[in-house]
């Protein structure tokens, strides 16, 4: 039964049946590329979808689109402010998805992220179907731990939406195995105990967590929370398959940076990730 | 069933704390009351919630813990609290016999002390040295700061900036008790935003910190723990009613914000089918104005602060800012057990406007010499209505959950005093 071509024998055969987001991330990872998933709060500015094009041009491998919620308990000040700003502009799930539907194809998978109340409000089936119609392939719900995920997991699978689960440094190993097994697209490794937001250094807990996830899956592992600079991205790349960059992007957007500025910033991260191809696996 | 023997001479037994399970009143293993409750929180908090749940399970089966909690309730909080019959007030209630459970007479002036002492003991068992809490009216913050001072714990209280202003006296009390009060300027700057900020603190400092949750909302096991520590209100009141009147009341009335004082008095009566349970939410300026906190009566099912329950939300699923003249009821969510009691029909929930509450507030002061909290005044106003419906034969027990000293600023403005 062993087939070393499928990866370490420890892991069950993976990619068969994987969705489009996961297939894309695996394919790119397997070429040795460090994965980059920048985040933008949907509806943050009138022409906010221009940021998506800039992210794609900078070499994003996937793009996370936040659907703002009034009570973002896991977000630090930057993403909170971005959400409040978007909501004050009249942003809503429906309008953000309509904006995405109206865009020409980006060629980069889109992953929505939001809090569970917005999913439940529409109903998990209708919500996932709406994501699908808007061309979104994945979903992250940071206040939905694995044991509450059953109803959304089924609805997402039925609609062809890959529901990525989050793992934290405090998660015990058996639970980490369940999260990794049930996660689709990738496993979102939360680098630290805390909220989203820029930090001066990559948390020490990041390396240990990604190492523990790797022991139980070969699904792509993206490290998020507090990754703000090229140096931190390079450091993160030594442990994970790639990085999620949210607050560092949104602080610039809130300060008035346009799509071109963000493209320049993300290009520096892209280059940092590309430099670090020969890391140990 | 639990096999802990009641300790001789105490007012509290394991059964008092834990209920009896007959009414399905312990949530299931996932913390669900029917479809309500659960744990909709970041993954990082799950191990901490597991730890709290496991330690609580040990504590409530530990006679030493029960004895210590009981001792604090009697010698520090001032339990048991008395019942007071209020005949002059009752004249305005169609002559129905109204009897108050006097939680306003506890140390710190509100029922919140019961839960806080229990959880502060639990904090020590958890080996944590720091507590954080949210507060709306400031009563839970004051109670938490009090217990933290008593037990030598570091204490940080999150409070909406708007609430800090309208409850300035309680801010000063918390500071005097050694707590750090952090005004929260996000969102509506009230209780819900204070809870958001407390969750952010907890996820960052969970190794050292216990989140001393103040109401029966939030993720499992908080709705169960807070209920169990508040349950003494109804346990006492049920015994006292039998002693005083020889029978159970026809109805029990309580104000509902998050719902802890209401569940505290309701719970011991859940199996008494002849006892109607009535919860009164803040109707604010009136349903038609949209400025209210009618979560159970007008809200819809959603997820807020870690729990699936009724919430006030707009057509997009964004939380709506609630309104009430009483900061303690100004909350767009509610404990999942109330959502479940509503849907099963065991309890009924109604709205009381600011004006109705303030009328009852003044009436109790003038007729009985008791100044109630504005929160509790919603239950009093409900009892006045209910008494007129039920007639002079009816006996109504009201949870006077707190005293009104903290509300004098609001009363001065409202009545031009």
From TrEMBL, chain A:
Annotated catalytic residues: 64 (proton acceptor), 75 (proton acceptor)
A GO cellular-component term linked to this record: cytosol
Subunit organization: Tetramer of two alpha and two beta chains.
Pfam families tied to this protein: Trp_syntA
Keywords: Amino-acid biosynthesis, Aromatic amino acid biosynthesis, Lyase, Tryptophan biosynthesis
Catalytically driven reaction(s): (1S,2R)-1-C-(indol-3-yl)glycerol 3-phosphate + L-serine = D-glyceraldehyde 3-phosphate + L-tryptophan + H2O
Pathway the protein acts in: Amino-acid biosynthesis; L-tryptophan biosynthesis; L-tryptophan from chorismate: step 5/5
Catalytic activity, EC: 4.2.1.20
NCBIfam families named in the record: trpA
Entry GO MF terms: tryptophan synthase activity
This protein's name: Tryptophan synthase alpha chain
Class in the EC hierarchy, top level: lyase
InterPro entries for the chain: Aldolase_TIM, RibuloseP-bd_barrel, Trp_synthase_suA
Protein role: The alpha subunit is responsible for the aldol cleavage of indoleglycerol phosphate to indole and glyceraldehyde 3-phosphate.
Gene: trpA_2
Heme recorded as keyword: no
Protein species of origin: Planobispora longispora
Family indicated by similarity: Belongs to the TrpA family.
């Amino acid at each position: 039964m062993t087939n070393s071509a499928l990866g370490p024998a420890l892991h069950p055969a993976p990619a068969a049946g994987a969705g489009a987001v996961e297939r894309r991330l695996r394919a790119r990872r397997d070429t040795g590329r460090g994965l980059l998933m920048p985040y933008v709060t949907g509806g943050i500015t009138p022409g906010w979808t221009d940021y998506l094009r800039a992210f794609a041009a900078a070499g994003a491998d996937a793009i996370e689109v936040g659907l703002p919620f009034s009570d973002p308990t896991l977000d630090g000040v930057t993403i909170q402010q971005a959400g409040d700003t978007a909501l004050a502009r009249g942003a809503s799930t429906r309008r953000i998805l309509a904006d995405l539907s109206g865009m020409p194809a980006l060629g980069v998978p889109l992953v929505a992220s939001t809090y569970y109340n917005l999913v439940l409000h529409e109903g998990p089936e209708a919500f996932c179907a709406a994501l699908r119609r808007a061309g979104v392939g994945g979903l992250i719900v940071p206040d939905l731990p694995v044991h509450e995920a059953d109803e959304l997991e089924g609805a997402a699978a039925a609609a062809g939406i890959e529901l990525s689960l989050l793992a934290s440094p405090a998660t015990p190993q058996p639970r980490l195995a369940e999260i990794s097994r049930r996660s689709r697209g990738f496993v979102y490794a939360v680098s630290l105990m805390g909220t989203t937001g820029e930090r001066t250094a990559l948390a020490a807990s990041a390396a240990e967590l990604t190492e523990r996830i790797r022991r139980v899956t070969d699904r792509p592992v993206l490290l998020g929370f507090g990754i703000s600079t090229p140096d931190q991205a390079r450091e993160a790349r030594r442990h994970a398959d790639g990085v999620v960059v949210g607050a560092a992007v949104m602080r610039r957007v809130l300060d008035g940076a346009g799509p071109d500025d963000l493209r320049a910033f993300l290009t520096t991260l892209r280059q940092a990730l590309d430099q670090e191809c020969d890391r140990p696996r | 069933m639990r096999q802990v023997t009641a300790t001789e001479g105490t007012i509290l037994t394991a059964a008092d704390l834990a209920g009896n399970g007959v009414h399905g009143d312990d949530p299931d293993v996932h913390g669900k009351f029917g479809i309500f409750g659960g744990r909709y929180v970041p993954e990082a908090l799950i191990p901490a919630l597991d730890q709290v749940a496991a330690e609580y399970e040990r504590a409530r089966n530990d006679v030493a813990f029960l004895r210590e909690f009981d001792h604090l309730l009697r010698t520090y909080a001032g339990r048991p609290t008395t019942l007071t019959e209020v005949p002059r007030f009752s004249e305005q209630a169609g002559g129905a016999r109204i009897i108050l459970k006097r939680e306003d007479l506890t140390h710190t002036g509100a029922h919140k002390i019961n839960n806080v002492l229990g959880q502060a003991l639990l904090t020590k068992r958890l080996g944590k040295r720091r507590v954080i809490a949210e507060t709306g009216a400031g009563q839970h913050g004051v109670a938490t700061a009090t217990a933290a001072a008593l037990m030598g714990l570091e204490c940080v209280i999150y409070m909406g900036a708007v609430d800090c202003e309208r409850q300035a006296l309680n801010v000063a009390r918390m500071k005097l008790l050694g707590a750090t009060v952090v005004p929260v300027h996000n969102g509506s700057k009230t209780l819900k935003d204070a809870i958001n900020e407390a969750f952010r603190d907890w996820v960052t400092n969970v190794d050292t910190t216990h989140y001393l949750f103040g109401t029966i909302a939030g993720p499992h096991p908080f709705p169960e723990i807070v209920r169990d520590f508040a349950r003494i209100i109804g346990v006492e009141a049920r015994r006292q009613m039998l002693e005083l009147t020889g029978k159970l009341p026809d109805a029990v009335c309580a104000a509902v914000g998050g719902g802890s004082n209401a569940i505290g008095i309701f719970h011991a009566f859940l199996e008494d089918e002849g006892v109607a349970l009535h919860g009164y939410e803040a109707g604010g300026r009136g349903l038609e104005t949209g400025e209210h906190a009618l979560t159970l009566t007008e809200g819809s099912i959603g997820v807020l602060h870690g729990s699936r329950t009724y919430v006030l939300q707009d057509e997009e699923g964004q939380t709506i800012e609630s309104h009430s003249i009483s900061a303690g009821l100004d909350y767009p969510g509610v404990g999942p057990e109330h959502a479940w009691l509503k849907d099963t029909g065991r309890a009924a929930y109604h709205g009381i406007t600011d004006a109705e509450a303030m009328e009852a507030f003044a009436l109790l002061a003038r007729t009985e010499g008791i100044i109630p909290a504005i929160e509790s005044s919603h239950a009093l106003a409900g009892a006045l209505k209910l008494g007129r419906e039920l007639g002079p034969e009816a006996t109504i027990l009201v949870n006077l959950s707190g005293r009104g000293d903290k509300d004098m600023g609001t009363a001065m403005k409202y009545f031009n005093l």
